[in-house]
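Structure ticket #2291
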Amino acid sequence: MPYAGRVNPRVLIVDDDPTFREALVRVLSEAGFTVRVAADGQEALKILDYAHDSIDVAIIDLNLPAISGFEVIGAITRRETVMGIMATTAIYKQTFLDVAQYLGAHIAIRKPQDLEELKTWVPAIRSILKAEGEMGMAHGALS
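Resolution: structure written out below.
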């Protein structure tokens, strides 16, 4: 079931940087999100295989070992489940963020230098959830 205003939206963070991942978990948890984590693309795909219906938004680092964030985005967009996607990176050029959006990311953004800036991501994630809820309602009306 899509987000539809759930009290505790469910987020999957896919990032191989433990410091970044922990900071984002803290910020999102404090903002009322229920958070799952995957340290790489392979772990993310395993989670998606058994729990894709229980994730509202995936925040995906594009530069992951073994299976790239681009591949994870592709795996999400090939599913019928409505899920918001936020792509992020610290090292790639703007072109890569543009490609992530072309593949289906709702937002593509550079990682902040200062982890305190992660708090500014909360409204962006909520906007993805709002759009996802609207898409889910439209999808339900079409089914």
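Closing remark: The chain has one domain: 10-133.
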